[in-house]
Amino acid sequence: MQLKNCHNYADFRSLARSRIPSPLFHYIDGGADDEYTLERNTKAFEEYYLIPNGLSDVANIDTSTTILGQKVSSPLFLAPTGMSRLFHHDGERATSLAAEKFGQYYSLSTLSSVSIEEIGDLIDTPKMLQIYIHKDRGLTYELIERCKKAKFSSLCLTIDTIVAGNRERDLRTGMTMPPRFTPSSLLGFVMRPRWVLNYFTHEAFKLANLEGKTEKGSKESLSVIDYINSQFDTNLCWEDAQKAIEAWGGPFAIKGVMSVEDAKRSVDIGATAIMVSNHGGRQLDFSPAPVDLLSDIVDAVGGKIEIICDGGIRRGTDVLKALALGADACSIGRPYLYGLAAGGQAGVEAVLSKFESEIKRNMMLLGINKLSQLDRSKVRKR
Question: Catalytic residue at 279?
Fold first, then answer.
């Protein structure tokens, strides 16, 4: 299969699987425990119908919107994902440039393999850094200051990863960062010689934003689970989030909100946005899908704070359903990572192009020409 033959999420996933070693594919693909939530994130969208109106003027479709104070061409943006260098040697350079080409918001992870400064110089379109609270609290505030100098548009604090979820696929495949050839992982790498050649003939993998701060994950191989459990602070509280908001002084999102209570607290501490997210089903299994919670959260805080639906989005129709339920925007992770693994920047662009065409086409079929026309009259739960 080639990129030109990829017509949907499943095709990109299949092509990615054929091109990267199995430990890396399953790192992208997997979830926590029994992976109930991972599956539910997508299945939940199937429970909503879209209600069209005919004989509407849809000659000019406008998908532009404002996210965290920035005018963008699409309500869909690229969620923060770590270690992209492992999936393709261009890593975050490829994903950020693809986002810029499509005029979309881009999010960089603290655990990225390309630095804040390089991304700041590379793209001019809106960009966010996603931070964690490390045990070294000074590191968090240092990252915030680096973002200011690199002219990032916003910050995002992930609150659902104080301890790593039980990602059993990673344990079975021997997934580490950087990759380590062990009895459980060796065959997966041997079966992908092209990836191995590219990996060893391009720059070495590193956690670029943490160079000089920790050897773990850059020079010392360890599992992602072990990294999280050894480096992230389990004593995270709302006061820490408020201090980070004050230190940044600009648009700020709280990622990992899964309850009305946390949504209200986010409003109270001055956050600009919340990302309704269960970390792609990679943390607490048997938590609900973000779209399951949208209506309650929108009813509780809608209009007081921007609401971003993060998780399970595989089609343009999923984006439209979430917006109709009251979300202001949506974000994707796995879809563009499969595109990256399948074909670098061209693969990410192919994924974004599919979403763009699906959103526009289905807006026309719904009988609307701008996103503001989406409301609950356009959806019905089965």
Answer: yes
